[in-house]
Amino acid sequence: KQEVTQIPAALSVPEGENLVLNCSFTDSAIYNLQWFRQDPGKGLTSLLLIQSSQREQTSGRLNASLDKSSGRSTLYIAASQPGDSATYLCAVRPNTGTASKLTFGTGTRLQVTL
Amino acid sequence: GAGVSQTPSNKVTEKGKYVELRCDPISGHTALYWYRQSLGQGPEFLIYFQGTGAADDSGLPNDRFFAVRPEGSVSTLKIQRTERGDSAVYLCASSALAGGDEQFFGPGTRLTVL
C-alpha cells in the first residue's frame, strides 16, 4: 500500500526566504506526482504536475523535482511571500492497473511572516 | 463551468439522517473523483468515475456510502444513516482523461453530523 509522507509538518519562515518542502513515497511505481496548495477552509489548487518520466517542473517561483527511484519529491519556493502561507500537499498517482486515484500526504503547513 | 463546483458548501445534519452532496465537474471532463478529508489529514480517495460508470469504488468505507453519475457529468455522493464519524470535508475533482491528467478540485462540502 502506497504511503506518502511530508516533512516538515509545519514551517515558519520570514518573507523573502527560499524554502524546500519534502515529500516521500514508499512505492516508486507511480504515474505522476502532483503538488497542491490548500488555503484554510478551501479546496485544493493544483500547483505542479510531474510525470514519472520527468525530473522537474517549474511555474513562476515554484520548482518541483522528482526522483522516482528514491521515492522523493521536493517543492522549492523562491523568495517567499506572506501570500504563500497555506498548506502544501503532495499526491501520487499509481502506475498499476487503471487506478487513477491519488494518494496524499498529510501536508506541510507553511507560514511566511513579515 | 470555469471550475469544479460543489453544493452545498456546508451541511449540518443529525445522526441517522440521509444526505446528498453534489459535484459539477469542469465541462468536458470525463473522469470524476470523490475524496474525503478529515481535520489535519490529507484527502483520502473514495470513488472514481469514468463517464457514467464507477471505475473504482474501493475507497468507500461501507455500504452506507453510494455515488452516482447518471449522465456522465454531475455526480451525487449519497450517505445513508449518517454517523458522527462521517463528519469531514468531501472533495470532488475532475480530469480530462482517465489516465495521467491533472486533477482539478472543487471547494468541498463540509459535512457535520451532530
Produce a short descriptive summary.
The complex is a heterodimer of chains A (114) and B (114). Chain A contains no helices and eleven strands.
Give a description of the structure.
The complex is a heterodimer of chains A (114) and B (114). Chain A is an all-beta fold. Chain A is 0% helix and 58% strand. Chain A has strands at 4-7, 10-14, 19-25, 30-38, 44-51, 56-59, 62-67, 72-77, 86-94, 103-104, 108-113. In chain A, the strands form two sheets. In chain A, strands 2, 4, 5, 9, 10 and 11 form a six-stranded mixed beta sheet that branches. With 114 residues, chain B is mostly beta strands. Chain B contains no helices and eleven strands. Classes of the chains: A mainly beta (114), B mainly beta (114).
Question: Approximately how much helix is present in the residues of chain A?
Answer: under 10%
Q: Distance between the terminal alpha carbons of chain B, to the nearest Å? A: 33 Å
**Order of helix and strand elements from N to C terminus of chain B:** EEEEEEEEEEE
User: What's the mean pLDDT score of chain A?
Assistant: 94
Rounded to the nearest angstrom, the radius of gyration of chain B is 13 Å
Form type of chain A: globular
State Rg of chain A.
14 Å
Class by alpha and beta content of chain B: mainly beta
Largest interface: A-B, 26 and 29 residues
> What number is the mean pLDDT of chain B?
93
Determine the number of helices of chain B (DSSP H or I, runs of at least 4 residues).
0
Low-confidence stretches of chain A: none
Output the number of helix runs of chain A: 0
Order of helices and strands of chain A: EEEEEEEEEEE
Query: Which word captures the global form of chain B?
Result: globular
Helix content of chain B: under 10%
